[in-house]
Amino acid sequence: xxxxxxxxxxxxxxxxxxxxxxxxxxxxxxxTIYEADYFRTFSPSNALQIVQRVPGFTxxxxxxxxxxxxxxxxxxxxxxxxxxxxADTLDVILSRIPAxxxxxxxxxxxDLFGSEYSGKAQVLNLVLTAQGxxxxxxxxxLRRDFLGRLYPEGSVSALLRRGASTFNLAVGVNNNAxxxxxxxxxxxxxxxxxxxxxxxxxxxxxxNGFVSGSWEYNGGANKTAHLNARTALDLFSLTQTNIVxxxxxxxxxxxxxxxxxxxxxxLGADVTRPFLGGGLKLIGLATRRHRLFxxxxxxxxxxAIVDGFGQTLDDERDETLARLVWTRPKLLGWDVEVGAExxxxxxxxxxxxxxxxxxxxxxxxxxxxxxxxxxxxxxxEAFVNASRAVTSKLRIDLGLTYEAWRLTVAGDxxxxxxxxxxKPKAVFDWRPGHGWHAQLSVQRTVAQLQFEDFISSAELTTxxxxxxxxxxxxxxAWEVLATLEHPVLGDGLLKLEGxxxxxxxxxxxxxxxxGFDAPGNLGDGSVYIAKARLDAPLKRFxxxxxxxxxYVSYIGSSVGDPYTHRQRQxxxxxxxxxxxxxxxxxxxxxxxVEAQGNxxxxxxxxxELDRNSSAWPYVTAFAExxxxxxxxxxxxxxxxxxxxxxxxxxxxxxxxxxxxxxxLEHRYRTRHIIPALTFKxxxx
Length: 684
Description:
It is a single chain. By secondary structure, the chain is mainly β. It is globular, with a radius of gyration of 26 Å. The protein is 2% helix and 64% strand. It has a 22-stranded antiparallel beta barrel. It has a domain at 538-684. The protein is built from two helices and 39 strands.
């Protein structure tokens, strides 16, 4: 739940509303338009950097873990159409488009761009030029950890336009590596007597590479086609050294390793043709993923193996889908969209947990409740969406989706069920004038189930078992969200949001008959939402090229706890998130400071409260030099203040139904300051 924030003391005097700057105009359907010239002061090299500079807009990259196509949408379309890829998130796709190929940016309510975006207060349409020829960009980064080790990474992308066809190819290698050090203390309660002290160093390596390509054909309105393919390989490695000093006991030298290999493949395509006065679009997508995870934890005394545990997870996940959508503008005064989607998802998972015999002489298998299983889902949905302008200031969007699932679990557990849901929605978009924009949405939503929640597994880093639950069902909710926004100080924006969700069968953690806890369903719950975002230029305050933004979010949640029978937060929620930012662009030079802070995140387990937090604020800073419009050198500091992260685990015996805790584990980790140097060069 980490959010990045930018901080400056100069912008606490923000006040006053103003009309939009000349570079910002109003278009049809309530669209706010920013021409390419508006972004030249930032010297962007790719489309992602342009999107990041749109006032008041927050990029939602989409969730590629969501099954199906419709629900995985982010909040950006390109030339009015959603990319037909799921594996590549929006930030990755945008980073491959050279800034020189962007004609303008349009911001409008989600219903202007299809049913996937209905209910979103803002969706960004990136409009590209018709310029032909070759263009591209290269990015290279060199990062340094606190031990002085260097980690290079880079990517190159090229875009070629020939007539009605556009080809895009990208190759990249990321090198997400770090060294983290810290300690753990385990203390007995209530007296806080030290039981155990652990000194830990984590060496993490996460190199991953990808190759992706796409082809687009644009023959005019409703005469388009896309083809995209991607392959990626991720090799995650963690090596932990751990000196364990029990009070009154023998010192151990424990050792933990994690070796995670992941392969992904994706092939997607869509074609749009004229049909009955509108456009008929067929989308096809197939993804394949294979994971092989190996964990090994060994406890040593004087180099001799005393005991330990290991686990191997080998799973394959497949998704195949087809989506057919017909859109027709101005049908009896309504813009109409009708469609259907069919999806087949399958997870084949094998988990083998074992104990290491003393001396490392053998492996003793440990059986888990559900460690070998095949989960299969057949899902279909049909939807209709209709929107129209009631007046010149009011637009409404109405939608209805019928969704049906057939879910089967085979292997160590047997389960089969069919679920059906009707999901209505209504969105009212109002522009009363003088720059004001308000939106109200009411809809019913149904969460997706994570197939991995059906499978049991162990966490060797925390010495606990996560049970699987083949009978988990999705939570469903009624959601109300109101949004109000207005320009400030020229091309700045103030945005306020408030909402409420009433949730049935909240998905959280529940006890299992085998004595573990597992993902399951609690009773009804509530979520309260309050957000405020401010993005403003500082020219009126005498700060040339300066820009300030701030974001505050409060999300309160409440559900009955199955152990204490009292109301509590949902697991994994942070009540308060604060983001503040400042940057200044001065021709060839730019600099900025980022900071972030959020309240602790707590997970409510069978016999523990697991709370994660960090000191405030988490700061990053950068300075950038641009010798010409195609080249930039960026020096950045991640965790510039060197703050640590904390984790407190409060244990109860035999479960949290006993209100008196027995142990407290405190974890302290720091990565120190991470400097990085990035070079970017665009061409064409």
